[in-house]
Amino acid sequence: MPEAASTGKRRQIVIGGHRVKTVDVHTHTFVPEATALLASTGIEKQADAGARALAGGGTTSPDLIPVGPRRLQKMDEDGIDVQALSINAFWYSVDRDLAGRLIDLQNQKLAAMCAAYPDRFVAFATVALQFPDLAAQQLEDGMKHFGLRGAAIGGNVEGEELSSPKFDPFWAKAEELQALIFMHPQDSAVATGIRNRIQGSGVLANVIGNPLETSIFISHLIFDGTLDRFPNLKICCAHGGGFLPSYPARMDHGCLVFPAQCKTPIKKQPSEYLKQLYFDSLVYTPEALRHLAAVCGSSQLVIGTDTPIPWVSDSPVDPILATPSFTDAERISIVGGTACKLLGIPA
Questions:
Q1: What CA–CA distance (Å, rounded) separates 187 from 213?
Q2: Prediction pTM value
Q3: How sure is the predictor about 252, in pLDDT bands with cuts at 50, 70 and 90?
């Protein structure tokens, strides 16, 4: 059975008698200079949105936002060797010139964070998806010039679905570069149209809104043919892929029952496309992980914590170690093996 051994203050994860590298693909940070840049242009509202995008409307652990000693201490306690940093998109409404300056600034700062701790952090580039040709160039520049490992994106651009052919230049570049694209919801209550329904108690804007936004994003990629046009895309979806992996058979039956409403022919059964996407492990329990692996494949799962948002109170590794149906090889893959391959991290 796998175990967690301690060497000094850094938790070591041992599976099958071997020390394994662990990688957390879903973590966030922030570039204060980006807020300052937006504020200097008079877009205070957009600058405020940047702070809200990090907090997700919830409680953030402020000492874990910077890439520094406190964050490293928490990683060591949790047995996380490497984190992949991302910034939730809040700039999809700015003009092309400002978007270019903002993205260049953020990507430089992300690269500097990783350079300060090269064995502990990698990062996803930020891109201005409202200008797909520019986003494609920013992705390439981010990977080739700044050493970033892919891109972090939202689930839509000001209400436009990313399955629209308009965004094909970005998807084509991502496929060409074999870049990992990490999708995370932003302003999901508005994006999904449920804002009026989720008022009141229960944090429903996040608890329902974020998984719903991810579910809609994936559904459009499937049913609008994006995953057929770009079959070699590497996309990782936050929060365990939202609601789709919990109810995939309904996707398969929808076009059988209502064929007139399925206007774009696709090459496979809808649920089969879930097996070519990647999903983080932020589903909380061993049983939920078992089900996600059964639907999508254990090879498609990676660790995700949402740091610095405290969605995970204990080590994110423990539910993976505690899932009895996983073999040691599957555990090694989920805790870091798959992420190392996707992100170009030495195993």
A1: 9
A2: 0.93
A3: very high
Residue type, 104: D
Using an 8 Å Cβ cutoff, are 281 and 316 in contact?
yes
Q: Which of 77, 155, 111 is nearest to 315 (CA)?
A: 77
Structural tokens at position 99:
């978007």
Evaluate if residue 245 carries a pLDDT over 70: yes
Enumerate the domain spans of the chain.
14-343
Assess whether pLDDT exceeds 90 at residue 23: yes
Q: Which helix (H) or strand (E) holds 125?
A: strand 125-126
Tokens in use for 292? 């996600």
Instruction: Tell how strand 234-237 and strand 121-123 pair up.
Output: unpaired
Residue indicated by tokens 């000094």: 8
Q: Which helix (H) or strand (E) holds 147?
A: none
Which CATH code, of 3.20.20.140, 2.40.30.60, 1.20.1050.10, 3.50.50.60, is assigned to 14-343?
A: 3.20.20.140
Q: Using CB atoms within 10 Å of the CB of residue 59, give its burial: 0 to 12 exposed, 13 to 18 middle, 19+ buried.
A: exposed
CB atoms within 10 A of CB 264: 12
Give the separation between CA 295 and CA 205, rounded to whole angstroms. 26
What pLDDT is stored for residue 4 in this prediction? 46
Among 254, 104, 274, 278, CA closest to 178: 278
CA trace torsion 224, 230, 234, 240 (10° rounding): 10
Strands 121-123 and 82-86: parallel
